[in-house]
Known about the structure:
Distance between the termini: 55 Å
Order of helices and strands: EHEEHEHEHHEHEEHEHEHEHEEHH
CATH class of the largest domain: Alpha Beta
Helix content: 25-40%
CATH superfamily of the largest domain: Glycogen Phosphorylase B
CATH topology of the largest domain: Rossmann fold
Radius of gyration: 21 Å
Number of helices: 12
Number of strands: 13
CATH architecture of the largest domain: 3-Layer(aba) Sandwich
Number of domains: 2
Structural class: alpha/beta
Amino acid sequence: MRICILYDCLFPWTVGGAERWYRNLAERLAADGHGVTYLTRLQWDPAEPPEVPGVRVLAVSGTDELYGEDGNRRIVPPLRFGRGVLRHLWRHGGDYDVVHTASFPYFSVLAAGLARRRHRFGLVVDWHEVWSRHYWREYLGPLAGALGHEVQRLCARVPQHAFCFSRLHRDRLLEEGLRSAPELLEGEYAGDLTAPEPNDAAPVVLFAGRHIREKRAHTVPPAIAHARRTAPELTGVVFGDGPERGRVEDAVRAAGVQDAVQVPGFVGHDVLDAALRTALCSVLPSTREGYGMIVVEAGSRARPRSSSAPRTTRPSSSSRKGSTASWSTAPSPRCWARRSCGCAPPGGRCASRRARGSPPTPGGSASSTRSGRSPRPTRAGPARARRPRRSARRCAPR
């Protein structure tokens, strides 16, 4: 088949879970014998174009800063990317049997839907997350947020074959007006499925993610500082980069843990994998996650995971019974400190239980609870979320 993938970022020029997912998808489709074209933004030196095995990479819009000074995504780059996608597909849409796109940044979906009327290619859309009306307004303000939510609703109404990665966003997508039944894919994971061997954990707390406001990476250094009062050997590493990196570095200095917490930026996959295999636990104090890939990856390496319960969705833990995944609601640094120290004793065997040494299950739920059990679905529809435990509520900032 002739397949065109649309995403405004390309790994490793832009680093993130979705970027790696679409890069892997393009390479896998090409390896299976399909003709693959990848439309994206210009993120590299034009004199040194990317070389992706078997994949033709085309930049349909120029270099733009994705994030503004406030840490939010800027609107202009998605508009330009959508315009470039429309221009390419309007002229060359007949060259493709299928166009596969992420729902975000939305204007590419509208462009593909418009070009599809002319060329009749199949359209596949991945919906990693569907924002609520309230969150749109919180993110962009009343006017721009209302406009953004309307654009999302227009994308949901474009004729498409939709994939969702959690029941929460599947239900939201249907509420937004999708006219067909979306296909639910639980367990988005492209790593090794071999169960890891038990190993001794180093006293290291690990964070990995983009440094943006929703990830709350700046809360990790003070949490480690608090934990070191009772576990002075504890250290931390905050992987990633982004508009809030300066805030993270300021938090390290303010907490007085310059010798204990590293902020190395983005690192190679091998470095991150090795760190996940030896860390005491990984933390993700995020208020919004479409899927939370790092939580799944940490689980596959048998690392305990401590995550907040985001307002739009929980990151998927894909855990079995007996998992060490834990949740808290809007946690404070003190709560993170308690959870980080409580995952396992320094030097402990972090794959001692069977569930800790097991890779994520393909049918793992994106709404797993603290015990690792998925809520049972009711006859009326999707699973009911449980109220946070008292211990979690006590950790919330007042």
